Structure formats: C-alpha cells, structure tokens
Amino acid sequence: MYVRLGEICDFQSGGTPSKNNQKFFDGDIPWITTVALKGLGIDGSDAVNWITEEAIKQSAAKIVPANSIMIGTRVGVGKVAINLVDMSTSQDIVSLIGIDETRWCKEYLCKCLIGKSQYLNSQARGATIKGIKIDTLANLKIPEISIEKQYEVSRIIDKTRIIIEQRKQELMNLNELMKARFVEMFGDIKTNEYGWEKCTFKDISTKITDGEHGTVPRVDEGEGYLYFMARNITKEGEIDLSETSFVPREIHEKIYKRCNPEKDDLLLVCVGATIGKCTLVSEIMGEFSMARSVALIKPNKEMVTSNFLINLLRSEAIQNDIDHCSHAAAQAGLYTNMINSLEAFVPPMDLQIEFDTFCEQVYKSKVAVQKALDETQLLFDSLMQEYFG
C-alpha cells in the first residue's frame, strides 16, 4: 500500500537574502545550501551563513522548524537531511513540514527519498540549472507501513550503511599504511635523507607517453577495445570500469602499437580535475587503448619496481611538483616532457623488493576488504529496492 508524499506533509521553499543588504546578515539564524544535505542530522555547524530576523521578514528566506526533512530540488537534486535546530535554506531546498510523527518515522522517509534520488534526477529540467518541481515531490509514492516497521527498516539500513563506511575506512587505512611504510623505508623525498642516487622519471623509465590526442569514434562493448580515460582512475587511485568507452580495432591497433600498455605499467591522469592520480595496469583491463587524458609510464625494471615507482609518484612531494607543472603551462595539463623531468631517486633494488613484498600483502588485504565492501553494497542496494521499490 502506498501514499503520495503530498498527502502526508506540506512543502516550504527556501530563499536567499540579498547580499547587498548588510541588515540581513550576522544574525543568529543558520542558513544552509544543498552542500549540507548529507543524509544525516544537521545543525548550526553546517551553516553557510547566519541571517537575521530582518532577512526572514523582508526576503524569501523562511524559518524551517527543527526536525523537518530537507531535500535538494535544484543543485544537489535528491540530497536529504533532517535539521536538528530551527534554520533557513536557499531556494535550492524544499522542506517537508507538518509531518504527523505518530504515523511517520522521519528517518524512514529520508531513506525512502534517498532511494528515489535516481528517479528525481531523471525528472530534473532546466536550460542552465536543472531542477524538479514540488509537484514531482508531491506525487512520489511512499510505502505505507506501520511506524514500528518504519523504525525497524530505518535501523537495518543504518546498520548496513555503517558497515559500508567501516569497509571504506579499512581501505583508506591500508592505503595510509603503505604510504607510511614507504616513508619509513625510503625517507623524505625532497630532502633525500638517505642519500639515494638522484635522477629523473625519464632516467628510470623505458617509455613515457600519453594516449590519443584526437577525437576517436566509439563503438559498443564487444565490438571494439576498451578506451581508457581519466575518469577510469578514481580519486583513491583505483581502476573504475563502471563507465567505459570502446574504439574500433583499427583505431585501437594504432594507439596500442605506440603505447603498448602492459601489466604493472603506470597510468597517470594528466588532464582534468583528478590530474596526478595514478594506478597500475591490471590484468582485468585486457588489451586497451588510451586517451590523451592518461599518460603511460613504463618502469625500467632493472632500476625500479612498479610498486616503488607508483608510491613515489603518489608521494606528497611529487604530487606538489605535478600540480606546479600542470598549472605553469599555458594550457593546464601535464605533458610528457614535464613527467620526464620530475625528480626521483633510486634506492637499492633489494630494499625495493622488500617493499614489494609488503605491498603484495597489503594488496591481498585490500582485495578481501573490497570483496566484503562490494557484497555489503549489494545487500544495501537490494534492501533499498525491497523497501522502497
């Protein structure tokens, strides 16, 4: 049995006081934007600004009573939160007020709205900033179950989400462990405290190149080869093939012949918002081509191991150098000559091999944690589908 959202609450739009009127600001009423909507309870610490009673009286801004549900309807469509204190919001947020708490658990309603965020985004319209109308919210179908069952559903979803966050934290901790071990074994890169032989990335690589510069035609999966792009390297430096493009065989052969990516080569984002992020070529990628947004680095395996080189590349010092180089260019980006000139050093190979052994153990742990994370995420998704459709 379902009930429409518009039947169980009233909707209140937000507003932004004019910044030209100083009497509207430096007050004691927290004012938020969709940035604060993170699916959790929010309070004054999430405020973007603090407005006055004058702003409430003379602008479109309104007071949202504590314990209302807030949902993004423009920038951040579908994002939700419950305000723990009275506050005010921008026009990008609609607040759900007047909910009968004897019939409805607000945490349950929040999770239901999160479950429908994909649908809400599909309904967003607009020439510049896309948004949804209140009518779209009002017509959302909410599963009507007993309030006791609502609290139970909310608790189950919360427990599952907590496990997901714990798994993600475990992965972050393993990454930090590898970084700490690298510094422990090889010291500070900038000061080169152990006096390792200095060199450049060109000296310790057999090839540094980037992918295809021009526009290439795309084909459906199964009709061509993977076209690896910057978006396929996550902020955490992992391979993400959830969004993939494919190119025809003749295009692939041309790029592959020049780049020839092989297992344990390094892939480095050299254009875009995630510039500097890097990963190792994996067996799961198969034979693939690359876009200009990705550079390939082939380690000289007589001088450095792949694990040593990628951790060197991920170090704060090298990342700072990359940031400086990419912004110093006339057109923002990291070019092969810049990568060639990045400073490096070469520790003894037996020390690198020892670090390799450590990395392999960490990778095994990461695989196990990632598998558990994937299974828990699958459980979470199936629960959201079961409870909210």
Set out the fold topology.
Blueprint: E1 2-4, E2 10-13, E3 25-32, E4 41-42, E5 49-51, H1 53-58, E6 69-72, E7 80-83, E8 88-89, E9 93-97, H2 106-115, H3 117-122, H4 134-138, E10 141-143, H5 147-186, E11 197-200, E12 205-210, E13 225-228, E14 245-247, H6 249-259, E15 266-269, E16 278-280, E17 288-290, E18 294-299, H7 306-314, H8 316-328, H9 336-341, E19 343-346, H10 349-388
Parallel strand pairs: 3-8, 4-7, 13-17
Antiparallel strand pairs: 1-10, 2-9, 3-5, 6-7, 6-9, 11-19, 12-18, 13-14, 15-16, 15-18
Helix pairs in contact: 5-10
Could you describe the 3D structure shown?
The structure is a single chain. The chain is an alpha+beta fold. The chain folds into 3 domains: 2-144, Adenine-n6-DNA-methyltransferase TaqI, Chain A, domain 2 (Alpha-Beta Complex); 146-174 and 351-389; 197-346, Alpha-Beta Complex (Adenine-n6-DNA-methyltransferase TaqI, Chain A, domain 2). It has 10 helices and 19 strands. It has helices spanning 53-58, 106-115, 117-122, 134-138, 147-186, 249-259, 306-314, 316-328, 336-341, 349-388, and strands at 2-4, 10-13, 25-32, 41-42, 49-51, 69-72, 80-83, 88-89, 93-97, 141-143, 197-200, 205-210, 225-228, 245-247, 266-269, 278-280, 288-290, 294-299, 343-346. It has a 5-stranded mixed sheet with strand order 2-9-6-7-4, with helices on one face. Helix 5 packs antiparallel against helix 10 (349-388). The protein is elongated and about 70 Å long. The two termini are 12 Å apart. The mean pLDDT is 94.
